[in-house]
């Protein structure tokens, strides 16, 4: 029972305030405990989860790198047909083969004329006679030898021409590599430099099938490679000449 100096209403108000403070302290304690549990749960991450997180961060960092920040590749082009058509050392060999071919064609013409004369003479003879039979055998022999000689010469000329272009291309490859390495070039593409003839189907097809559609003139190394090859030829000729001269002195 409350004392008379304190009104019943005042006593009830004090008790109510005291109860509210206790409830507040209990609620704050529960909230603090919940935060502590969450903090402990966030720290207790498995090693696998940590690795996945690190990997994801690295991937995101790599994706953020601009392609312009990465080292690029240097590309050049070369007109191979222009080199073969204009390099003096290759053209000298081609002219030599053509001269041999022209000489062979002259010999073939003489043999063909002789064969035609023998065939005309055969037509003027009486079939079945001994002279006719001998002439007939002669014509057949001349024709067989001419065909065999033409086939052999043609094969020899083709092999000689193929060797010229094969050896020339090997030299060209070595020169392109030397120029590319010296200039830090990673890739050299073949360039078709011939002008297209709209009236010729083959010319149009070659133009359409070109490997390079567009290139800047600054990446064309055709002239540089030709100068390199020409210098090699001159150096080789000078060395051969000096060797021959020293051999003569001995």
TrEMBL record:
Asked if the record carries the keyword Coiled coil, the reply is yes
UniProt xrefs under Gene3D superfamilies: Skp domain (3.30.910.20)
For this chain, one GO molecular function annotation is: unfolded protein binding
Give coiled-coil spans as residue ranges.
Answer: 87-121
- Top-rank taxon of the source lineage equals Bacteria
What protein is this chain from?
Answer: Outer membrane protein (OmpH-like)
The residues the entry assigns to the signal sequence are: 1-50
Provide this UniProt record's keywords sorted from A to Z.
Coiled coil, Signal
